[in-house]
Design brief:
Layout: E1 2-4, E2 17-18, E3 21-23, E4 26-28, E5 35-39, E6 46-51, H1 55-70, H2 79-95, H3 97-108, H4 112-133, E7 139-141, E8 148-156, E9 159-163, H5 169-174, H6 177-183, E10 186-190, H7 197-208, E11 216-218, H8 223-232, E12 238-242, H9 245-256, E13 261-265, E14 271-274, H10 280-292, E15 304-308, H11 312-324, E16 327-329, H12 344-359, E17 363-366, E18 382-385, H13 392-395, E19 402-408, H14 411-419, E20 423-424, E21 426-430, H15 434-443, E22 448-451, E23 466-467, E24 470-471, E25 484-492, H16 499-502
Parallel strand pairs: 1-16, 2-6, 9-10, 9-12, 10-11, 12-13, 14-15, 14-21, 15-19, 18-19, 21-22
Antiparallel strand pairs: 3-4, 5-6, 7-8, 8-25, 13-24, 17-18, 20-23
């Protein structure tokens, strides 16, 4: 393993970002005046300072969004007007890419080059949402007889509460917010308390482009103080959440008490199935990339591979050798691929999963022990072999740079093992036999199945999971429709005869 250190001078001129909440078109502190520092997980220094919000702040934000939806101009904007503003927001993100990437790198611990790519990618999400704003439409039925015309229209669902995670702060928000705005909704956003920076920067951009007040509100703080009201408040019509399955289950139950619309993107234990006729080098590279991208702190992480027994020993050996070459270290170093773990709690979860695997008879083939450094939380690329399908590490999400290796004897067994978890987010199949690939893709219970690739994505394709990986889909051509309700309008044509006259 190579551990890289960045130039110490890079941070000497860095001033921590001081963010403010956005409520009803105004930047403000919490009503309590409390603020908190964000200590960067890679450097151990203050990288941001944010309001520590409370329930009263959340209440004001929701009320502002409610008023903006019920009485403000936004829902009545034409599609062109909404699309034009979304494009201006995209341009605003593009103009602040370097600034947003830096705070994302420092708050999450992910490599700066990766953070820059994610912020740049968000620009495309906003522009794609703008295109959907102008194509949102309903249906008409002129086939109901001479006396009836049926029209089905879509109208915005209302106020949407959005709760986003710490692993891809601005990216995941950009999978939600522009599509809700394109539909004409208003929103209240609660970013993770660990990674609030880029969301608050986005709030500044929203103000600069002239978004009407109250259309988007941002509150920061703990989930118990700020997040809970966003789920339970009567004025919130929909909840969109990305995070753990445990929290998602709780949110679904709470929202369900008032029959709110819910969209959930949750956990995954995603398999890559490797057949003997795979493109060997490409598959090895995809396995290493798939599990160590974002230090494995990714719901789509390819955290388990299922390798045909005939090639398992040689394939795993090549994966180990390639993983040894992955550079770990200071995320500000341009060559680093695996940065720091987000916090002590997550590091403890990762170490506990590795310890449990050893106790259950698995073998750590690479890594497995945190990197001892003066500052920062770093876990090197880790590979665990001799894993059985019933082991915890084969079934539960670790959310760290840990790969589990399982073997199979035939196609049917591989598919069964792939499906034998509570999750169903994504999977990959590696084979030159298109029949094997198609059969596996059809039978694997996952929202996305990649064939001879992994972790590719585009705004045009929907994203979401089966089973406990979530409810609903984000992205794709129907993404704006998810933030609407359908309304049927029946228009009677001509004179209407009373029913009792017809029955004389």
């Amino acid at each position: 393993m190579t551990f890289l250190k960045a130039d110490e001078n890079i941070l000497k001129s860095y001033a921590p970002f001081r963010g403010m909440m956005l409520i009803n078109g105004e930047f403000r502190d919490s009503v309590t005046g409390a603020r908190v520092d964000r200590i960067g997980p890679a450097h151990g220094i203050v990288v941001g300072n944010y309001p520590d919000g409370c329930a009263e702040d959340a209440e004001m934000a929701i009320n502002a969004a409610r008023t903006a939806f019920d009485k403000g101009p936004w829902p009545s904007f034409t599609a062109k007007e909404r699309a034009d503003l979304l494009i201006k927001i995209a341009d605003g993100i593009a103009a602040r890419t370097d600034e947003m990437a830096m705070i994302e790198c420092l708050e999450t611990g992910k490599p700066l080059a990766q953070a820059r790519g994610e912020v740049s990618g968000c620009v495309d999400l906003w522009r794609y949402a703008a295109s959907l704003a102008r194509t949102l439409h309903g249906e008409s039925y002129n086939s109901l007889g001479d006396g009836m015309l049926g029209v089905v229209v879509r109208q915005p669902v209302g106020v949407v509460s959005m709760i986003t995670p710490w692993n891809f702060p601005i990216w995941i928000l950009s999978q939600k917010l522009p599509f809700a705005l394109a539909a004409g909704c208003t929103a209240v956003i609660k970013p993770s308390e660990f990674t609030s920076g880029t969301t608050l920067m986005l709030g500044e951009i929203l103000q600069q482009v002239g978004l009407p007040k109250g259309v988007v509100n941002i509150v920061t703080g703990l989930g118990t103080n700020v997040g809970s009201p966003l789920v339970t408040h009567d004025s919130a019509d929909m909840v969109s959440f990305t995070g753990s399955t445990r929290v998602g289950t709780h949110i679904a139950a709470e929202a369900g008490r008032k029959l709110k619309k819910v969209s959930l993107e949750l956990g995954g234990k995603n398999p890559q199935i490797i057949f003997p006729d795979c493109d060997w080098e490409a598959a090895v590279d995809a396995v290493v990339f798939g599990v160590y991208f974002n230090a494995g702190e990714c719901c789509n992480s390819g955290s388990r591979i299922l390798v045909h027994k005939d090639i398992a020993e040689r394939f795993v050996q090549d994966v180990v050798e390639k993983a040894r070459q992955v550079a770990v270290g200071d995320p500000l170093h341009p060559d680093v691929k695996v940065g720091s773990i987000i916090n002590d709690n997550q590091m403890a979860i990762i170490e506990g999963a590795i310890r449990s695997a050893r106790e259950q008879g698995a073998e750590v083939l690479l890594g497995g022990t945190r990197v001892e450094t003066v500052q920062g939380l770093f876990m090197p690329p880790t590979i665990v072999g001799n894993v059985k399908p019933e082991m915890m590490i084969a079934r539960e999400e670790v959310f760290g740079p840990v790969l589990s290796v399982l073997t199979f004897e035939d196609k049917d067994q591989a598919i069964n093992i792939a499906n034998d978890t509570c999750y169903g987010l994504s999977a990959a199949v590696w084979s030159k036999d298109i029949n094997i690939c198609l059969e596996a893709a059809r039978k694997i219970n996952a929202g996305t199945v990649w064939v001879n690739t992994f972790l590719d994505g585009t705004p045009e394709l929907p994203f979401g999971g089966f089973k406990q990986s979530g409810l609903g889909r984000e992205l794709g051509k129907h993404a704006v429709e998810d933030y609407t309700e359908q309304k049927t309008i029946q228009l009677h044509i001509g004179e209407r005869t009373s029913w009792w006259i017809n029955n004389k």
